[in-house]
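Hi support team,

I'm opening this ticket because the web form for multi-chain structure prediction keeps timing out on my end. I have pasted the exact lines I submitted so you can reproduce it. The total is 830 residues across two entries, so I didn't expect it to be a heavy job. Is there a limit I'm missing, or should I split the entries? Thanks in advance, R.K.
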Amino acid sequence: MPVVKIENLIKRFGKFTALNGIDLTVNQGEIYGFIGPNGAGKTTTIRILLGILKATEGKAKVFGMDAWKDAVEIHKKTAYVPGDVSLWPNLTGGEVIDLFVRLRNSNNKKRQEELIERFNLDPSKKCRTYSKGNRQKVALIAAFASDADLYVLDEPTSGLDPLMDSVFQECIKEVKDQGKSVLLSSHILSEVEKLCDKISIIRHGKIIESGTLDELRHLTRSRMVVKTKKPMEALDMIKGVHDLEVRDNIFYFQADTEELDNIMKYIAQFGIVKLESAPPTLEDLFIRHYMGDGGES
Amino acid sequence: MSNRFANTKILAFFILRKDRIRILIWIISIVLFTVVIGSMLPNLYSTGTDRQIMAETMKNPAITVMLGPGYGLDNYTDGAMMAHFMLIFTLLAVGIMNILMTIRNTREDEEEGRTEIIRSLPSGFLSPLTAAFFVSAAANTVLALTAGLSLYSLGFESMDFQGSMLYGASIGTAGIFFTSLTALFAQLTPITRSALGYSFGFLILAYIIRGIGDVESELLSLFSPLGLILRTEVYVNNHWWPVLLTLGLSVILAGLAMYLNTIRDLGAGFLQPKSGKAEASRFLSSPLGLALRLQRTAVISWTIGMLVLGLSYGSVLGDLEGFLDSSGLLLQMLPESEVFNLTERFVGMLLTILSILAAIPVLIFILKLKSEENAGRIEQLLAGAVSRTKLIGSYAFIGLAAAPVIQFMSVLGLWASAAFVMEDPLSFNILLKASMAYIPSVWVMAGLMVLAIGYLPRFTGAVWLYLGYAFFIAYLGDMLKLPEWMDYLSPFGHIPQIPLEEFHASKTLLSMLLAFGLTAAGFAGYRNRDIHG
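Hello R.K., no limit was hit. The queue was backed up. Here is the completed structure from your submission:
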């Protein structure tokens, strides 16, 4: 049974359609990356999943239960870190962590203290004095100190320094080792690349690409840098070659993965001096989808 | 030097642009309120006898506590009567308007980080505060002129040009004073809510000091800005000195606020919050525990505040007794039974007013849920294993449970100080019974607030408006001879005033059922709507 199952989810705010038929499945033990530009519908999807917003149409299920009706039951085993952490200015960080952990009915004081130490947080300060990063730490500590089966993290690291970011990545790996599931929405693509097993890209309230990183790469192109003995001609006429640039007799271009074989055969005739190939980064993928030549619109 | 004020003009226009509707609504409502009542009064008391009874009533210390000292009573003109009735309420409204307006443009902007962005632009470090002062000065000047000219245009003989302009100047000056005062509090504390609390606390204190001072000692009244302004004796003696004095005080306070602004860091205050405990107490483990913890200070201060309010109202009952004994004229003019009932009638009215005031903290405690939602903090609670019913239930519970506690405190205060000053003290049992009879009415208000939060959180302001209506009707309904149905529109209007009338079980039960129904409906709405934030 999938941990999260979203089917044909539609959410309208008045006339504005924020989500237009989202499908998404997170299986047990998966770290699932959820990426998309600002305003694409990531946070709306997450809020519906948490039963904070009510879906207009479609299904959103967590642990097989209805995200709206069974919210309380679901949340006993779910930990959430919002993108914009608002805390009570007159409570201390320690008090808020205690409160959040208790509201989830889990209580592992040792783990909590260990996390406070690792994230280097002063829990006796009032929340009003915390910076954005420190507020995020409070939410992260509360989340990882809870005994949850699903972690829903909405851009959780946007305010963390690189040191804390690596602590965060360790925590994610520990959670994964325990067989738990994570839904991670993020803008930091290198982080998603490093952590996630599967990825969905959302745009204008629709999922436009889903799969493992390898599968997604398959859909796209490799970056090639080639230098040949004899001057190469008419490379741009070859099927599957894009964005060709020539500088100092070095050819820079992108190659469709499925045409790679033909392209290589063609280049080989001219005698290869140098050949570099880089797999497409998530960033390339992302930009390709958003610049308009990848999607349907 | 001028760099400190760089771009103040642009900022002032920006504030005007952003708050223009808000400012307009305030000005129009205050002027309309003044003009409508101002034009009604002379027709209500048109005969000479009516006037004389009214003038005699105005000598009643109970009325003095409410409205301020009567003046020009020998020849009680339309103007004197209108100003005496209206000025104090208008001053309170203008005070509230300026406190809210100023907080938004000073400490709230700063706490929300908006001032930081402004200051990072080429604007001086005194520019935001100065711009707020300019806007307030402009808004209050427009208010003063509009109110003054409108009153003059009513064309009553006794409401001459100078008097009308002085009336306008009085409310405009009070507005400027409360802007300066609020700006000063906004420098002292780094917390918006505290600055708001201090400012409103000062307004209430000023009202209480004026009330006691007007009966006991005029000198005391002069220490209250409200008491000071009432000394203008508009339309009779037309004193301008209280206006000038208040204006001078406002300038000093504003200067002090600006000085404090220059010597402190952005985002800081002079009353710094302390560090706290690293661990939550056992109490803080449920939505109810959290709601109580967040509102601890508010709950305690309101409870003490209502006790003080009860004490101060009670303290004038002795004077009322003495006044009734000595006022031969009133005895001549009114049937005997009515005069002997006057103390009881006044106490009955006091209890109605105290009950309406008790609804303010009750509504505030419930409304906290909305501000939590707007601040985006509800989302994290609901992401825990917390049901919506439990969440809204916690806030509703605090409000509903606070009602009897607060009612008890105010009636205790009233009884205690009355027992001290009266020769023939009131029975605590009767007072308590009379006061408790209003609890279902307070609950109806609470239920309306829960309903608003459950369905249309944008319209919680309407509940405040309704409470304002109830307050107004209870305070002035009789004297303005308003029709009875207007009284029945208020949830407090149905309740029998117990020393005079009989306890009415069915009305109480009906109010309770209504309150319960509204609350339950609000819960249902809250379970079914999106949470914003």
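A quick check on our side: Residues 293-297 of chain A have pLDDT under 50 and may be disordered. Let us know if the file doesn't open in your viewer.
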